[in-house]
Fold this sequence. Notes:
- This is Lysophospholipase II.
- Helix content is about 40%, strand content about 15%.
- It is α/β, with parallel strands linked by helices and about 110 residues long.
Amino acid sequence: MMFANYMQPYLVYAGALTLASVLLYPRTLGGGAVFSGWVPFNTTIKGKVSPEARKTPILWSHGIADKTVLFEAGQEGPPFLKEIGMKCQFKVRLPSFFQLLFCFRQPVHSS
Length: 111
């Protein structure tokens, strides 16, 4: 769990970097993947996306229990991409069995 806590803030930036790379690269890429990310741009980037870059498909996956980037913030990304003519598939990640098990193993402190 320590590794996940250490890496989580950096994964947020990885999603933003993926979006910037895909949107600003002048050619079509094989695809881009965003995990628990958000759109860090304003609407001015829309005019900078080339017609070829708009053909790059995006897979966007977001956990409903994400405490770093709220689920609602992640949901705003795919409509932004579709608005500029890109294909984006949004996947919801539910907590895994092991994550739930870890939560229930935490000691309960009585008052």
